[in-house]
Amino acid sequence: MILFYFGIFGFTEVSSKVLGLLEGADCTPLGGGQGVCKLLSKCGTIGDYKNNHPPICSFTGMSFEPNVCCPKKQPHISESGRKVKKICAELNNIASNPHLMVSNITIEGFQSTKQDAVLALSPKNHNGSGIAYMTGGAIYQSSNAFPVKIRSKYPYMTLIGFCDNEKERCDISEAKWKCGGSLITPWYVLCAAHCAVTPYDSAKWARLGNLKINDSTKSTVNKRIERMMFYPQYQSTQLYHDIVLFKLESEVEFNCDVLPVCLQTERDIKQNKANIAGWGRTGSSQHMNNHLLEAEVNIYNDTECNKLMFECVECKKEAIRMPRGYQSDYMFCAGDPENGTDTCQGDSGGPLVTRSAEYPHLDIQIGITSFGKKGCGGKRDAPGVYTRVSNYIPWIEEVAFKDVSE
């Protein structure tokens, strides 16, 4: 029995990490959150313990069965995601409709929305660093093969345009397109918080309906960013809670080129792969790409992400920006080192999406491109880090979906 448990956890690896806590004591599980010390055999939320190596509180009796730090069950996030799910169901029906109209698409759930003024203060001391690092992507070609008459596979993709901080307003011709985002309602674009303000400029414009940055077609929609809503716990000096909502100056009219994305409401990501898209650089020394690029990446488990991005020697340099280490409730990792696929500067704020059986005709946004460790290129030991969208559904619904009926 001793060999069995020591063999699973690797005694030489974890002996220095035994917490010295008795059964029933509070503890912090792998990736953060709340936990309680329980016998391994009684912990139903431990997951893949053979690979995850959960923290050990203590060993019990002659059996030496470990008391592990067992994550407490979190409130079922879908209870807070009913409004999002309602919109996703309607979007899925629209995308599967063979008689879809090309323009003036109506989403009933948004018809009663009324937008009140919301005061949002920009975070101070933003240093503008941490903009994530897409390489290895392919140019997305619009195709009629995508469901029905939705001409673009990414009708929610948004370009974020920046102007000098000294200007309260600027003309669209002055905008520099440096981040991505995703349309989630007629009024709001979801993005990374570090994309909102830099030491020199700030987000002022949102452009939708475009596959190329420099093209302006009849499908192009330009909207001024009226306000920025940061997650209440976001601090610009740290890498946690990298999420912001951009309130647009006026409502976006939906059509086959401009539609909102469906958001993930459950914490667990069942898929092993996901897609990234953006106009970012194709290398650390390259310029923004005029064409929208797309690529497939692998989703890393929490143990891999923590080891590669938060426990490495060079990671210690960023410790001041990650004082609590890897927090799996807020973030996760994705990448594809074998094919050199990764996000790059200019892809920040853009969506990481996958598909689900529940909404087979839709992309589901599971992450927001946040930051990377070693530039661009999908290095084996440096996946990209993404903000976990599901963690912020209650806040997103409160701000952007508040008038959607359940």
Distance between the termini: 52 Å
Kindly report the average pLDDT value.
Answer: 77
Backbone CA Rg = 22 Å
Largest sheet: 6 strands, antiparallel, barrel
Low-confidence sequence ranges: 1-16, 112-150
Helix content: 10-25%
Spatial strand order of the main sheet: 13-14-15-18-17-16
Please give the count of helices: 6
Number of strands: 18
Principal-axes geometry comes out as globular
Which structural class do you get from the secondary structure elements?
Answer: alpha+beta
The proportion of residues in beta strands is: 15-25%
Report on the structure:
Keywords: Disulfide bond, Signal. Pfam families: Trypsin. The protein is of the alpha+beta class. Helix content is 12%, strand content 25%. The protein is globular, with a radius of gyration of 22 Å. It starts with a helix and ends in a 6-residue tail after the last helix.
Short structural description:
This protein has helices at residues 2-9, 11-14, 49-52, 82-95, 302-310, 393-400, and strands at residues 26-27, 35-39, 56-60, 65-71, 138-139, 157-164, 176-183, 188-191, 201-208, 221-230, 244-248, 262-263, 273-278, 293-299, 331-335, 351-354, 364-371, 384-388. The protein is of the alpha+beta class and 406 residues long.
